[in-house]
Amino acid sequence: MTAVRVGVVGVGMMGADHAERIAARTAGAVLTAVADPDAARARELGDRLGATSYGDPLELIASPEVDAVLLASPGFVHEEQVLASFAAGKPVLCEKPLTMDVESSLRVVEAERRLPRPLLSVGFMRRFDPEYAQLQGMLAAEAFGPLLVMHQTHRNRSVPNPEFRSEMIVRDSLVHEVDCARFFVGTEIAEIQVITPRATSKAFEGVADPQVSIFRMSNGVVVTNEVFVNCQVGYEVRAEAVCERGTAIAGRPQTGLYTTRAGEGEGYWGGVAFDDFRQRFGRGYDLEVQAWVEAATKGEVVGANAWDGYAATAVCEAGMASLASGESVSVALVDRDSLS
Ligand code: ISE
Questions:
Q1: What gap in Å lies between CA 273 and CA 260, rounded to an integer?
Q2: Are 89 and 119 in contact (CB under 8 A)?
Q3: Is the CB–ligand 1 distance for residue 156 below 6 Å?
Q4: Is the pLDDT of residue 272 over 60?
Q5: What is the pLDDT of residues 145-181, one digit of tens each?
Q6: pLDDT of res. 115
Q7: How far is the CA of 171 from the centre of ligand 1 (A)?
Q8: Distance from residue 255's CA to the centre of ligand 1 (Å)
Q9: CB of 229 closer than 6 A to ligand 1?
């Protein structure tokens, strides 16, 4: 079987990581192209990995040397680049968030429905993390009886960006918890409330960090979420499910009393230190990209689909409204069956 020729668009931190992943450890795939509006950055990476470089992402997407497109560009260009991939008939794995607002995410869903077959996967990599996947399987099988409550934790060491705003915690970080809640519970999120506790002095002035969010799922399950992006310690991400006859935790650090302290710990998982998501979810990313390449060879898509991307955008938009008002906000999704 001939290898899938992958082009990576956007070669910042995440895109460069994906480009290396495809070049070095994705079976059945070859990295043929990289693109970035910063043409010099694309050239440097392309030269190092033996791929053609482009300054124009749309040129890469149209290139005959690219069979499948991986988008690691910023969210505000996703709509245009996903639609260009659709027009070229190429499978596309788009990093989260799918787009920046619910209207554009819906346009992507509708555009895909007009294609002969689905082409879009959204990069919610946690679905491929072995522990998260195992927990989802247990919950779907109701191994401990019906799920009642979930508690999700998402901490990053720090955000050094002075442009950083409270809304970005919802759109860029909480969005993972949104997808995980839908993945674990298997229903939509009906309502979201974002609460802002006492803010850490380690965040930039005016940034509401940490944030606690409550999701009311359409089947009554409640999901609590803490997102804290300046926790000083490291990358700590976990999920606990509370069912009628038992509990289960994905991402549990270790046994015994577990503490982390800034400057001492790194954020531990299974006794291993993690600095950020590329390490903690490295295996998840590898499995995600491998599964995407294999699906592409069969004309299929895997992982989160266009609808999942749209639903996540809609929940985050409601979350941003809740962040502003402090009130609980209902999430209104279009009727899936009535889509053209
Ligand atoms: C970042 O954009 C990611 O997607 C990471 O997975 C997440 O942990 C981080 O909070 C986001 O900023």
A1: 11
A2: yes
A3: yes
A4: no
A5: 999 999 999 999 999 899 999 999 999 999 999 999 9
A6: 98
A7: 10
A8: 26
A9: yes
Question: Counting Cβ atoms within 10 Å, is residue 157 exposed (0-12), middle (13-18) or buried (19+)?
Answer: buried
Tokens of 257: 């009393």
Atom of ligand 1 nearest to the CA of 276: 8
How remote is the CA of residue 160 from the centroid of ligand 1, in Å? Answer: 13
Distance 88 CA to ligand 1 centre (A): 29
Predicted pLDDT of residue 34: 98
132, 176, 177, 228, best to mutate for ligand 1 pocket (most atoms within 8 Å of CB): 176
Mutate to test the pocket of ligand 1, among 100, 124, 128, 173 (most ligand atoms within 8 A of CB): 173
What domains lie within the chain, and their CATH numbers? 4-125+284-305 (3.40.50.720), 127-275+314-330 (3.30.360.10)
Structure tokens at 211: 């944030």
Q: Separation of 238 CA from ligand 1 center, angstroms?
A: 14
Check: pTM over 0.70? Answer yes or no: yes
Residue 9, beta-bridge partner list: 35, 71
User: Which pLDDT does position 282 carry in this prediction?
Assistant: 95
Does the C-beta of 85 come closer than 6 Å to ligand 1? Answer: no
* One-letter amino acid for residue 145 of the chain: G
